[in-house]
């Protein structure tokens, strides 16, 4: 396979609504931003695109990807649409990667969007719920806040995780977003704020859940020759991994824990796996990406992670799937302050320095979650981190991780039906 690099990226501001813009204009704005960062690059060098968006229902438009291709001026070059629930953007990045790695293309655009404001929140939740089994789960009232509440209640029962530990995730991500001008929901919160916000599905409150959003994001991927001709500091896609699982959680078989390089069988002798407390697809994606990138201990060898935190509970569960801590230790991991970019005072004792920053951008909870754009947003922010240009794009460098050399982006769909993990490395 050929080496593949990110050479540029752009996003729109994520917002509750952009009523003055349709999806094509949002993507075009992100695309133009990306082009402006690499003046040596010419649009004529683009061989094709991959366009990601989650739902035809939000746009009320089939074949919206073809309309994006037209609006970017890329016709008649090849394009395809990617859809994989919440993991749509992450899968889009990997599909674009494959087009270049295979040699089929030298330069590919990965573009994603969602316009979730076009419907009421209750209708948007209904559309999202169609990403569960419509023959079995959905007719019984299955909505995603309910699914994730059930999973974290099991996590609480098995491992002693607390709602206050989940609130720590919300506090961290919203506070990081105070310094991210692209974020939808920056806020300075306390545990009391999170726990007293409206209850959605116990124990998940409104501030434990990400928001519906409008927004778009674009990345440009290139082969090695092109990347170093047009970009001063391209970022290498070092490893990719994807996992899948049964749509219905009740259909997921129990078995041995999928071990990462830094784990042993003795670590999990008594663990019933995956249960509903863990995401087997996430562990599969992580193992594959780590092997591809040559990573033996993610906590030591990664400098930051942009993680799919649709819920505070799923961020804690994903710490464990990615091997940042052992299964069952996700709650204490966040409580000890390890995933924090900055020391944040919420009444708990924190270490002087974070071990690994998780969601320095603010994540989905605070940056927003326009589904088709989210995984690409993670790639854009990670690109800027590894290029050392956060200050340039954000107007301040408070979220810039010093000397960052390697980062991970993680996208997650359904209740763990699709999960993608992509590892990026500074060159």
TrEMBL record:
Start and end residues of each Thiolase N-terminal domain: 6-222
Domain (Thiolase C-terminal): residue spans on this chain: 279-426
GO MF annotation list: acetyl-CoA C-acyltransferase activity; lipid binding
Superkingdom per UniProt: Bacteria
GO biological process, any: lipid transport
Pfam families: Thiolase_C_1 (PF22691), Thiolase_N (PF00108)
Gene3D superfamilies linked to this entry: 3.40.47.10
Transferase listed as a keyword: yes
EC top class, as a word: transferase
Keyword Cell division: no
Keyword list, A-Z: Acyltransferase, Lipid transport, Lipid-binding, Transferase, Transport
EC number: 2.3.1.176
Protein name, UniProt field: propanoyl-CoA C-acyltransferase
GN (gene name): pcaF
């Amino acid at each position: 396979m050929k080496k593949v690099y990110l050479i540029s990226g752009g996003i729109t501001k994520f917002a509750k609504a952009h009523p003055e813009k349709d999806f094509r204009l949002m993507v075009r704005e992100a695309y133009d931003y990306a082009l402006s960062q690499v003046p040596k690059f010419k649009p004529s060098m683009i061989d094709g695109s991959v366009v990601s968006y989650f739902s035809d229902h939000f746009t009320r438009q089939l074949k919206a990807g073809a309309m994006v291709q037209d609006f970017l001026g890329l016709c008649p070059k090849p394009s395809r649409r990617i859809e994989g629930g919440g993991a749509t953007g992450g899968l889009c990045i990997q599909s674009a990667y494959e087009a270049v790695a295979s040699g089929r293309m030298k330069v590919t655009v990965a573009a994603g969007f969602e316009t979730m404001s076009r419907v009421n929140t209750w209708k948007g939740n209904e559309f999202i719920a169609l990403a569960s089994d419509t023959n079995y789960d959905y007719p019984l009232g299955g909505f995603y806040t309910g699914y994730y509440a059930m999973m974290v209640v099991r996590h609480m029962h098995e491992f002693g995780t607390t709602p206050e530990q989940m609130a720590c995730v919300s506090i961290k991500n919203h506070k990081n977003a105070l310094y991210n001008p692209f974020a939808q929901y920056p806020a300075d919160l306390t545990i009391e704020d999170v726990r007293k916000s409206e209850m959605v599905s116990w124990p998940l409150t409104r501030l434990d859940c990400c928001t519906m959003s409008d927004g778009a994001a674009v990345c440009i991927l290139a082969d090695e020759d092109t990347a170093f001709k047009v970009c001063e500091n391209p970022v290498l896609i070092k490893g990719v991994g994807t996992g899948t699982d049964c749509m219905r959680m009740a259909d997921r078989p129990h078995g041995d824990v999928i071990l990462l390089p830094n784990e042993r069988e003795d670590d999990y002798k008594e663990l019933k796996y995956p249960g509903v407390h863990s995401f087997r697809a996430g562990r599969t994606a992580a193992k594959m990406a780590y092997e591809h990138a040559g990573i033996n201990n993610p906590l030591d060898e990664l400098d930051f992670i942009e993680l799919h935190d649709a819920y505070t509970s799923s961020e804690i569960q994903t710490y464990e799937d990615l091997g940042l801590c052992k299964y069952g230790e996700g709650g204490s991991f966040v409580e000890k302050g390890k995933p924090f970019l900055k020391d944040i005072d919420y009444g708990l004792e924190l270490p002087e320095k974070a071990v690994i920053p998780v969601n320095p951008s603010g994540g989905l909870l605070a940056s927003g979650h326009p589904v088709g754009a989210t995984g690409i947003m993670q790639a854009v922010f990670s690109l800027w981190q590894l290029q050392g240009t956060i200050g340039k794009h954000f107007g301040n460098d408070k979220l810039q991780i010093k000397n960052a050399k390697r980062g991970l982006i993680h996208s997650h769909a359904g209740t763990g039906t699709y999960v993608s993990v992509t590892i990026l490395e500074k060159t």
